[in-house]
Amino acid sequence: MLLFALCWGMLLLGSTVYPINDVLQVLLGEQIKGVSFAVSNIRLPRMLAGLLAGFAFGIGGNTFQTMLRNPLANPNVIGITTGSSAAAVFCIVILHTSDAIVSMASIVAGLATVLFIYLFSSGKTFSIGRIILVGIGIQAMLNSLISYLLLVGAQQDIPAALRWLSGSLNGSQMDELPLLTVSVLCLTPIIIALGKHLNILELGEQSATSLGVRTNITRIVLILSSVCIIALATAVTGPIAFVAFLAGPIAKRLVGVGFSNAIPAGLVGANLVLASDLIGQFAFEVRYPVGIITGIIGAPYLIYLLIRMNRKGELS
Amino acid sequence: MKPKHIFQAEKVVAGYDDKTVIQEISLEIPSNKINVIIGANACGKSTLLKTLARLIKPISGKITLDGKAISKVPPKQLARIVGLLPQSPIVPEGISVADLVGRGRFPHQALFGGWTKKDYEAVAEAMEIMNITELANQHIDELSGGQRQRVWIAMALAQQTDILFLDEPTTFLDITYQVEILDLLTDLNRRHGTTIVMVLHDINLSARYADHIFALNKGKLVADGTPSRVITSNLIKDIFGLDCTVIKDPISGSPFVVPIGRHHVTYGTGALS
């Protein structure tokens, strides 16, 4: 419901507010002078990009958090999105490749980051704390790499690169959306189908094995699907801060434990992005990109979580 | 009654990384009985149980169920016959009792299928057997250690396996709850014929509740059979390095180990045997 209202909000509001009727007619294919351009070239792509990317961030982040049984273990915090961004910036600034290759590179880099984290943190036992700490370290390294690339990069490449660093729905184009739509439509069913497996994985390696889950292959499929869906969304909107991190826990509060959290997390993610974008566009004198607003919401929550986990002694 | 199964291990060697813990153990688990694995700390009891329950891949040797290697049976199909309660299972945050018990139904459910009537019945029955029906909507975090353990066993029961492995189900529980859990497991075995294989620390409770005992020493199977045949002062000396005298349990008639230490040996060392 809220999502529906927010979608309409995105279409109706702008520097000029159009009446509902006009917007509806444009959506149905009619041409109305002035309205048509604003709605179908600017607001509709913006709304759809926010909707799809928010959903993708939400569902992907939730999968990571559930699988690793820790809200900190999500692509934003452990450097997977930063890996994607670093690769994209490298392609843009140094290699000057086409957009498609930039997207591909970002997906590959996201997966490579996961592999890296996994290799560095795997010891005799499977430790979630270690994964998170290694991930935060890798994140810091990748961030310094990005800073370096921006310093050496040519002036005219910087704006394109910056798009990969802070999430924004500005300049979303209709032609960027089909790939993201297809991947959301393909990967979501996989993640949902494995929802029951995910619930069982949550009980730990031993219980999961004795309940008949092939733990390794299930984990790999889930990681691949989540990283792909997040990297593709990042390719369209840039890494919108903290959405993947916030959506899962909020959805869990809303629907309660025990139900599959995947779809609710996706919907919460979409709501967060659209609401934040509306706030960013209209609440202040200056227009802020959506990533700034989600960052303002997300950062205090991250600190709150760290404090709470530290009290419980879960970080050691 | 649960059907009879032939569960065998043949020259199984197992361990972690490059450390061998279990050396060439061959055994057959008596079907529809209560089996207990005993032995000193770090003798490989838990490793043996985990290897039999397919959590650890044996380095060499074969484990078969009704003549078929368990590594060849599809995991979900195997999970409908063989279940395991690990020593310290992980509780997902904020989960309710009914939800946790329900997860035991996983091997019976299809990929996209919802819950069937059979699933609900199995969960209700498991909670009833374990006496936790009235706790159904409570959160696991609110329960006592004994209640929690009953919930975990109920989850394993909801799985409705013919064979149930339990890794130290009574550890960390007060004596009252230890007896309660062992009684409940005995009910399960007597009423449904579920084959139970568990690791226990307490020798005297093992001797009382087991139909069959496997005694392990330094990774080797040194004796197996009925408690009265296996539990002797010589065996206890061998595997625990403890002097003792074995008397008859005044309540059950099973062997009862009375340790002999350096102090308080008031009546001499052979007084009651």
Describe the protein in words:
Chain A has helices at residues 2-12, 20-27, 35-67, 80-95, 99-121, 128-152, 158-162, 177-193, 195-201, 205-210, 215-237, 243-255, 262-282, 290-312. In chain A, helix 2 (20-27) crosses helix 3 (35-67), helix 5 (99-121) runs antiparallel to helix 6 and helix 8 (177-193) runs antiparallel to helix 11. The relative contact order of chain A is 0.17. Chain A is an all-alpha fold and 316 residues long. Chain A contains 14 helices and no strands. Chain B has 273 residues and is of the alpha/beta class. Chain B has nine helices and twelve strands. In chain B, a hairpin with a 2-residue loop joins strand 4 (60-65) and strand 5. The radius of gyration of chain B is 20 Å and the shape is globular. At the A-B interface, helix 9 and helix 10 of A face helix 2, strand 6 and helix 3 of B. Chain B: It is a peripheral membrane protein. Chain B: Residues 7-243 form the ABC transporter domain. Chain B: GO terms for molecular function: ATP binding; ATP hydrolysis activity. Chain B: This is Iron complex transport system ATP-binding protein.
